[in-house]
Amino acid sequence: MDTLYNTAKEFGKTHLLPEAKDVDIKGRFPKEGIQALRDAGYFGLVIPTKYGGQGKGVLAHAEVCSGLAESCASASLCYMMSNVGAYCLSLYASEELKQEILPKVASGEIILGLAYSETGSGTHFYKPDMTEEPHDGYSILNGKKSFVTTAREADYYLTITKSVVDGTINLWLVPADSNGLTFDEAGWNGVGLRGNVSEQMYLKDTKVDHFYKIDGNGDGDRLIFVVGLASACAGISMAIADEAVRYTTSRKYTSGKSLAEIETVETHLGDLYSRAYAARETLFSAARSVDNNDEDAFKNCIAARVTSTKAAVENGHEGMRVCGGIGYVRNHLPMERLMRDSLAGQVMAPGIDVLRIWLGRLLADLDYLAIMK
């Protein structure tokens, strides 16, 4: 098994799992786990070595994110978003901006958040309603972003805007302390993944220096983003399979026989692991194809995201059945938290139904973005 995956999995057990229950109950940001990831240098994973990072690729991103997600998917998701932001900056930002930001991310001094999704365009990030009004040396940004993971906790937010002058799409790295940047007072109260604090972010007449502007829509980061979401689902799926084994082997009848010795339960355990294993290996294969610049890399990433999302949902349902009534009790066994977490992948943008359309159109050699027009 991949060393990075195993290392991240053990790191998660030590540093993320102990707070996972409290993070879920309180719906709070996994501050302790994220700090541990900062201190251990994980935030430099995909940052080039010239900026103090480890220079790893998308496969490493998948291995680490999925390994961490097996302990706390909320923490893994917040970490993943910062990785995507750093990867995007590495590809598209000016050299000056790279030198200013990337070494600080790599050292754990700062973390990044993504502010892509909008109510008006939903899954289609690259058709934003948020506007930029250019001036001499700066622009004024106005609009609202939905489901901004790591809300209030990141130091910078990577966001997408549309120019009011010519309609061009651009990326911006918006400092968290910018005037006019606020978050919805209602906060975040998700069914699952309750620690990723995904809130609505508002920019009202927010002045951002052109130093933070990144020309182009940055769609090259779409692969690592899709892989990251697939990693969370794959990790949840495997965590459910592991928890089912743990519970059924420890649950004893009066006779001394364990629940795992019931033949029907054994078939459930086999199915849970089979789905989780298939999701993980499909994920790693897709991520490897990105690093290898394979022609079918984007198709593979979408397939991995669809596969892992389905595996997580199906495992969540079956895992609950294996644990029975005690598994349904809130905050008792981890299974009910894992089941709630498993549902999120269906609706996290790009949603699974849109991804299936994209994949079908790509396979038929059609313009997958045509559904946005």
UniProtKB/TrEMBL annotation:
Q: What positions does the domain Acyl-CoA dehydrogenase/oxidase C-terminal occupy?
A: 228-348
Domain of life of the native organism = Bacteria
Report keywords, A-Z. Answer: FAD, Flavoprotein, Oxidoreductase
InterPro entries in alphabetical order: Acyl-CoA_Oxase/DH_mid-dom (IPR006091), Acyl-CoA_Oxase/DH_mid-dom_sf (IPR046373), AcylCo_DH-like_C (IPR036250), AcylCo_DH/oxidase_C (IPR009075), AcylCoA_DH/ox_N (IPR013786), AcylCoA_DH/ox_N_sf (IPR037069), AcylCoA_DH/oxidase_NM_dom_sf (IPR009100)
Q: Does the keyword Oxidoreductase apply?
A: yes
The record's annotation in SUPFAM superfamilies points to: Acyl-CoA dehydrogenase C-terminal domain-like, Acyl-CoA dehydrogenase NM domain-like
Gene3D superfamilies to which the protein is assigned, alphabetical: Acyl-CoA dehydrogenase/oxidase, N-terminal domain, Butyryl-CoA Dehydrogenase, subunit A, domain 2, Butyryl-CoA Dehydrogenase, subunit A, domain 3
Domain spans labelled Acyl-CoA oxidase/dehydrogenase middle: 114-205
A Pfam family that this protein carries is Acyl-CoA_dh_1
Cofactors demanded by this protein? FAD
Provide the GO MF annotations for this entry: acyl-CoA dehydrogenase activity; flavin adenine dinucleotide binding
What protein family is recorded?
Belongs to the acyl-CoA dehydrogenase family.
Q: What is this protein called?
A: Acyl-CoA dehydrogenase protein
Q: Which organism is it from?
A: Gemella bergeri ATCC 700627
Lineage of the species this protein comes from: Bacteria, Bacillati, Bacillota, Bacilli, Bacillales
